[in-house]
Amino acid sequence: MDSKSILAIIPARKGSKEIPGKNMRLLAGKPLIQYSIESALASELLTRIVVSSDCAETIAFAKSWEGVEAPFVRPSELAADDTPSLEVVKHAVNYFKEQQTEFDYICLLQPTSPCRTWDLIDRALAHMMETDADSLVTIRKIPEKYHPLWALGVTGNALQRVVQHEDMPTRRQELPDTFCRDGKIYLLKTTLLDKDLLMGGKMVGYEDKSLPDININTSEDWELAVIFFKIWRKQQSNVS
User: Fold this and answer.
1) Which of 81, 82, 143, 222 is most open to solvent, judged by the fewest CB atoms within 10 Å of its CB?
2) How remote is the C-alpha of 37 from its chain's centroid?
């Protein structure tokens, strides 16, 4: 695999309606953002790691890690609930361009996925380069009972299929595989930003089969993560 420059961006804004102070909130004794920092630092392929934040506490925490940069304060207009990730990525990339530094690839690592491993990052990057894709997302197979071909919608009091299909499968064994994004990793060639795209061009998926499947966006997600880490710690203590 040819040597490529890869910028990892960890976005960690201050505000969060669902979980106040989410990125610096302790999960199993660590700030949530620390899990993403640790997996990025362990990667063998990432060139540089930057934390994009509008939060002084988060910036100071990021700077305490050797190998992690937090050289700017994200503007408030790019730290709102409805700010697209695309704009956050473009802001970070443009900052480095002004420093005469450019990258071949961008790796977006959202702190909401604390169970992401370093080897998943490197395997996804390797797959991206081997397929010469423009973008990649980690994906997870949708269980048959949630398959989109079997999804139902409600109109008034009537149920109807969301997808009309002439040869609708009646047995789960006949269903084609479908996937959803799991939020762990987003990869893209930096040139894709010139088209105002975070995902697009030749896009590929990298299936993530690891457990647990944790993506923290709601208070319920947080409670599930707390339960998982309690169980995991108990298992680790039993093994030792």
Assistant:
1) 82
2) 13
Here the tokens at position 199 are 């995902």
Given a contact cutoff of 8 angstroms between Cβ atoms, the answer to whether 9 and 103 are in contact is no
Which of 191, 230, 182 shows the shortest CA–CA distance to 210?
A: 182
Considering Cα of 182, then 187, then 191, then 194, what sign does the dihedral take? positive
- How is 14-77 classified by DSSP, letter by letter? S--SSSTTGGGSEETTEEHHHHHHHHHHH-SS--EEEEE-S-HHHHHHHHTSTTEE--SPPPGG
* Residue 239 token pair: 């093994």
d(CA 178, CA 174): 12
- What 3-state DSSP class applies to 225? helix
Cα 131 from Cα 222, distance rounded (Å): 35
Cβ partners under 8 Å of residue 179, min gap 6: 139, 140, 141, 142, 205, 207
Three-state DSSP class for residue 221: helix
Q: What is the pTM of this model?
A: 0.93
Q: Is the dihedral of CA 133, 135, 137, 142 positive or negative?
A: negative
